[in-house]
Design a protein that fits this description.
single chain
Length: 60
């Protein structure tokens, strides 16, 4: 679930960032950048959780 949410946040963020840049709306541009960062964080957290689960499975 985290991977899908992360990708969605990155896409939404990039769209907002580009739209804000094109229209000169700095607030929207910054919100888009923040959403992209959130998406990257979701991806990283999801990857880390998956790695921890694989490591735990190997121990059993």
């Amino acid at each position: 679930m985290g991977k899908i949410k992360g990708k969605a946040d990155k896409i939404t963020g990039k769209t907002k960032e580009e739209l804000g840049s094109a229209t000169g709306d700095k607030s929207m541009e910054m919100k888009g950048k923040a959403k992209k960062v959130k998406g990257h964080a979701e991806d990283t957290a999801s990857d880390a959780a998956a790695k921890m689960r694989r490591m735990a499975d190997k121990d059993h």
